[in-house]
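note to self: the first set is below, dont mix up w the second
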Amino acid sequence: MAARLLAALDDVPWQRLESALGRPASERLRQALRDLVLRGRAATEEDCYPLHDCLSRSTGRAAPAATAMLPCLVALAGDPYADARISLVQLLANCKAAAEADPDPVDAGWHEAWLLQRPRIQALLDDPVPAVRREALPLAEGIDVLLQRWHAEQDPAVRLPLLIALGTAAAGCAQGDPVGRVRAVLG
């Protein structure tokens, strides 16, 4: 997998892509992703910090570099041998806000790239590692997915945040049926 990811990273014209912090940061992002791939199990949370340059959550902006890095980020987050997975899943959760943002601050290719990665992103909710499942909860798309997770989840460290996510999703839902199903779980 590492060789394939490195080749894909090298094919991206990083010098032409702008990140949330501007064009020069894009090359640093490429190097940070390469380092994560090359370090594998030895990668740490600190190794993920440069990736946050790609998406500035305060602006809700998904720049072109974010679109380019998404497939690699998803692959690394789903790699059972990557030790920095928790940080990578958290970064994906931050990216979801951009996937749901208005089209103006988001790169034109972002939504399509997110949709292409969607099955792999949603698979993180069923990951064998409870901490990964917990951090992936914000990636769940809708109350039905959260309810499905609720019925499958056995780990108490995941069930409590899942319950909170269900309540939050129900509070933001105008439809009565999903809210009623969440209330049934709460009851």
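second set (the one i keep forgetting abt)
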Amino acid sequence: MLFLTEGYDATSINRIAAEAQVAPNTIYWYFKNKDELLVSILNAELTKYINEYILQSSKDLSERLIWVVDQLQLVDQLVSTVHARLKFSPELKEWYERFHVMVEALLRLELQKIGGGR
């Protein structure tokens, strides 16, 4: 993924299009801007990580949380990009807010499981 290897700012739509072997107009047909493309990538990655997290369900909570932290470290450049662009991108701000609601709900559910459903 170019955003991880080259960084968000250094990755142009033209570079993305070349890597995908399509015309830049094709990218803009599906995404209005680079932030919208990033949100799409974040959603795909998040879906992948949620599915992998579900596979961790046989492990205890501390092991699962360590796994989550390890995964976040793998994408720390994307995390930094999202935080840096929040002021400028309504698409990323909305994604960020939904992401945190989901993570808080997941953590609450995990804590309820170990706390007897309180």
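remember for set 2: The chain has a mean pLDDT of 90.
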